[in-house]
Amino acid sequence: MGAWRLPCGWRLLFSMCFIGLLAEVVHGAGADALHPRLFPAEARTLRRIAAKIGVAHWNFSVNPCDSESMKCDCSFYNNTTCHVTGIFLKEMNFTSQLPPDFADLPCLLQLDLSRSLFHGAVPDKWAQMRLQGLRISDLRGSGSAFPDLSAMQSMKTLVLRNCSISGSIPSYFGDMKNLKHLDLSFNKLTGKIPDSFAKMGSVDYIYLTGNSLTGNIPEWLLRRNNIADISFNNFTMGSSGPTQCLQGGINLVESYSPEMISLNNINPCLKKNFPCAASNGQYRSSLHINCGDKEAIVNGVKYETDTVPKGASVLYVNPGSNWAFSSTGNFMDNNINDDSYIATSTSKLTIPSSQLYARARLSPLSLTYYGLCMHNGSYTVKLHFAEIVFTNDSTYCSLGKRKFNVFIQGKMVLEDFDIEQSAAGSGKPIMKTFTTYVTNHTLEIHFYWAGRGTTGIPYRGFYGPLISAISVVPNFQIPLAAKLPQTGSRISSKALLIGTPILAICIAFVVGLYWIKQRRKSSMHQDLGALDLQIGSFTLRQIKAATRNFDPANKIGEGGFGSVYKGLLSDGTIIAVKQLSSKSKQGNREFVNEIGMISALQHPNLVRLYGCCTEGNQLLLVYEYMEHNCLARALFVEQYRLRLDWPTRHKICLGIARGIAYLHEESAIRIVHRDIKASNILLDKDLDAKISDFGLAKLNEDGHTHISTKVAGTMLVSYMRGELSWSW
Ligand SMILES: *[C@@H]1O[C@H](CO)[C@@H](O)[C@H](O)[C@H]1NC(C)=O
Ligand SMILES: *[C@@H]1O[C@H](CO)[C@@H](O)[C@H](O)[C@H]1NC(C)=O
Ligand SMILES: *[C@@H]1O[C@H](CO)[C@@H](O)[C@H](O)[C@H]1NC(C)=O
Ligand SMILES: *[C@@H]1O[C@H](CO)[C@@H](O)[C@H](O)[C@H]1NC(C)=O
Ligand SMILES: *[C@@H]1O[C@H](CO)[C@@H](O)[C@H](O)[C@H]1NC(C)=O
Ligand SMILES: *[C@@H]1O[C@H](CO)[C@@H](O)[C@H](O)[C@H]1NC(C)=O
Ligand SMILES: *[C@@H]1O[C@H](CO)[C@@H](O)[C@H](O)[C@H]1NC(C)=O
Ligand SMILES: *[C@@H]1O[C@H](CO)[C@@H](O)[C@H](O)[C@H]1NC(C)=O
Ligand SMILES: *[C@@H]1O[C@H](CO)[C@@H](O)[C@H](O)[C@H]1NC(C)=O
Prior knowledge:
Elements: H1 2-17, H2 19-27, E1 37-38, H3 40-53, E2 70-75, H4 76-79, E3 81-88, E4 110-112, E5 133-137, E6 144-145, E7 157-161, E8 165-167, E9 181-183, E10 188-189, E11 205-207, H5 219-222, E12 227-229, E13 250-251, E14 287-291, E15 296-298, E16 301-306, E17 313-317, E18 323-328, E19 342-344, H6 354-357, E20 359-362, E21 366-371, E22 377-386, E23 404-408, E24 411-417, H7 419-423, E25 429-438, E26 443-448, E27 466-467, E28 469-474, H8 493-519, H9 524-531, E29 536-537, H10 540-546, E30 555-559, E31 562-568, E32 574-580, H11 585-600, E33 609-613, E34 619-624, H12 631-636, H13 646-666, E35 670-672, E36 681-683, E37 689-691, E38 698-700, H14 715-719, H15 722-726
Helix pairs in contact: 8-9, 8-11
Bound molecules: 2-acetamido-2-deoxy-beta-D-glucopyranose (9 copies).
One 2-acetamido-2-deoxy-beta-D-glucopyranose (NAG) is lined by residues 91-93.
């Protein structure tokens, strides 16, 4: 009740007293508390609107308030008279302009035209309204400046998406105390984000995606706790602009202007078109993603896992850095706090390759998949869809309709695509095939919800693009030299042929280095420089950029020989950098050991060493990053404790055993680890165990026993710390 008083003001009182009395004379008959009538002036306005835009379903011979698309407050005159408070037009093909007449409904608080097609611009007359919610999207037409909404001080939800609005964002939004949701995405907005926006700390969602906003990215925005998506803009870096994409609710993908493309210290994710950097000439030529689901192998093809549950404002780069997705938008009108960005099939699918379709990624607004560092050339893109939310039966769920648009490399390939219609039924797969060209090593597949279809079936907030799987294959011969090295456990005979001499050289190096060290300790850094040739060599600058100059916030652990930092290389690869304290004499020897051994050893259950850095007096090892840190943390540290079920524990045990077995028996150089403990067992994203820290390992010459005589007595005790045996 309190809500409508504010906007209605004296005008309402006036109309109630005079026109209202008149109305009761004219329409009075039949209006009672059980059958209230619409206030006559409003009924006339609605008739006018209905005629202009072509709404047929408002029945004026009864109370149009009974329509689903209208909300009224019928408490006036002892519950006999209604005022319109909300209008929610469903999917309609209006070819008309937005009618100014909505401004003649004095108590209108909510106006949702986001799912209907309109043309033109927001009428000037609307400036006199006192709306709390306004939603318009995908307005066709030549565009307009920002409409005047300054009087709508109690605005809570404002959506003006893809309305061709140009010019700058007015600053008064910063003063709207009730604002919770501001979506100005996909317009032509220019200029800076107004300073007053710094006051919008309690606004849950800010979407400025897909504009041409300029200036520096404001500091307060980067520190926000709530969602802010400013991806796809023309910002400049300035003196303190971000050089990395952020974790959390701030999406910065492609937010910098094209001029920033040549700056090397900026992560490519921030640059236009997400270019491929530092790929060392190694490009990929295919891509297979099982969107919204775990890894699956279908017809011999491995579809990569994509199970990140977030999506309101997020950039996710997969651990192999060969693909990424950016997701924008939250599901509106649902009361669920946790929007679900992954749909799960309600019934068991009995279709071929059902692993691809059982779960799918959903997006309420915009979703962009990137194929990163791909060869230039022609590709066949296959998009796999199946409607798994709506059903084809006699239930309410069958009334749901999903429609969305798909763009590949910026070109629209599907408009108002309806999976169910296209596949002739729900739960049935449909594959759409397109040919596209990658001209600058990045492939972009964009899904966009243009407001079509239903939004409330089976529950509120079920709509938007749904994608089950993506596969991209080249239409050309893959250049041989650029094939990626196998990362699997099976070493091909070819690899052995090449690998054995390298291994021999490695051993020679390590042994040689050890020998040199004994004699000339000072020349160590030069020798390590030579070793770099065998494995990846990183510059100190690269590593400083990746770890933000060893930012304490990036520290993920403290090993026996120094700290471990998380870092992001400019090509998007996430790494772990172990900084060996150069003071420790022992550390230096360990350094040599680690490089020599780990570079020679590759196994799914051993942590992979990407390379090292020996600049200055720094001794740095660059490892693959392990999402779940170490087993000790997963078991014993309260705030990081993982719930490991028995199958997972079993898997971890097997992994450790396989790793050790490889070290002991399968590898060319036999190694005794000597420091197996929970903090040396790292867990990757799938909770597979990998053994790390070969710092104490020593070469174990062929023919000798695995257990060195010196520690034989305590070996059983010291080889494996207690926690591995008793804690689980
Ligand atoms: C309007 O409602 C009346 C009474 O229920 C009904 O007879 C009439 O057919 C309806 N008109 C339209 C256009 O739906
Ligand atoms: C309001 O309506 C009730 C019955 O619905 C009636 O008893 C009462 O007198 C009415 N009051 C006024 C002020 O009209
Ligand atoms: C109007 O209706 C509501 C509920 O429908 C009731 O609580 C209220 O007392 C009614 N007011 C009058 C004046 O009859
Ligand atoms: C709108 O137009 C499209 C094609 O122009 C048509 O498929 C659709 O059924 C129309 N929708 C309505 C509600 O008229
Ligand atoms: C915005 O709407 C226009 C039609 O007016 C459409 O062509 C364009 O694709 C839409 N933008 C997006 C991001 O879908
Ligand atoms: C923003 O960047 C686009 C290219 O991504 C460019 O076409 C456009 O002119 C830029 N706009 C402004 C205002 O700088
Ligand atoms: C939905 O199921 C009914 C039978 O239950 C069938 O007649 C109809 O063709 C199906 N529709 C689609 C689109 O599969
Ligand atoms: C291919 O890649 C290079 C960069 O490696 C780029 O300069 C070139 O424009 C790309 N496009 C084509 C069509 O070759
Ligand atoms: C391709 O990307 C490189 C940098 O990665 C950039 O310098 C070049 O301008 C891009 N070319 C096109 C055609 O976008």
